[in-house]
Design goal:
6 helices; Alpha/beta hydrolase; two-stranded antiparallel ribbon; 9 strands; AB_hydrolase_fold; PLipase/COase/thioEstase; about 20% strand; about 210 residues; seven-stranded mixed sheet
């Protein structure tokens, strides 16, 4: 799976250049989170992937959603295929730029955030900072979740959710705090007076997280 992406290269690239992967939500595209670029650290390589599937209305999706089906809201095989595709493309980008001794960070919104949880908790050795916004951890995507606290200790999570989110309920988002607490992961969980989106305070806190 070759994913289309936008890239912002730093002025100086070397084997230790940090890589940030941006994963958009359902019905959006690679330009959405790429708008964060002007306020992200200038020495990072930033890559924003476009999901592989056309969504029902416009934009793209990582997997189909059936809101009427409470038992199987998401198409698990499609989601797993997307997860494998993202990993494959991250490795390709690392090889292309000669990133052999760098940190890789994740930032996902909604669908992209759900995938970010799965990517980080199944492959903690590959990632460092992980931002999951307006989403929740989907257990069906994390059958191989790592539970060894030693392997998870390098991960740093930033989780944000709108108190008025009508797409993914706040209660679902809060499940992440319980899960990460049980795994002894380092995380901050923040709630904002907003709907299914990122308000200005959320954005500023996210940028602070990445710059620390």
């Amino acid at each position: 799976m070759d994913l289309h992406y936008l890239v912002r290269e730093p002025q100086n690239l070397n084997s230790k250049t940090p890589l940030l992967i941006l994963l958009h939500g359902y019905g959006s595209n690679e330009e959405d989170l790429f708008s964060f670029v002007p306020t992200l650290p200038e020495d990072w390589l930033v890559v924003s992937f476009r999901a592989p599937m056309n969504s029902q209305y416009e934009g793209y999706s990582w997997y189909d959603i059936d809101l009427m089906n409470t038992e199987n809201r998401i198409d698990i095989p499609q989601a797993k295929e997307s997860l494998n595709g993202i990993l494959e493309n991250i490795l390709k980008i690392g090889n292309h730029y000669g990133l052999t001794d760098n940190e890789t960070h994740l930032c996902g919104f909604s669908q992209g955030g759900i995938l970010s949880y799965a990517l980080a908790l199944e492959n903690p050795q590959l990632f460092s900072k992980v931002a999951c916004m307006s989403c929740y951890p989907e257990e069906k995507l994390m059958e191989n979740m790592v539970k060894d606290k030693k392997k998870l200790e390098r991960l740093r999570f930033f989780i944000s959710h709108g108190t008025e989110d009508a797409v993914i309920p706040l209660e679902w988002g809060r499940k992440a705090a319980d899960l990460l607490y049980d795994l002894s992961c380092y995380f901050s969980f923040r709630e904002y007076m907003s709907g299914h989106g990122v308000n200005q305070k959320n954005y500023m806190d996210l940028m602070d997280f990445f710059k620390k």
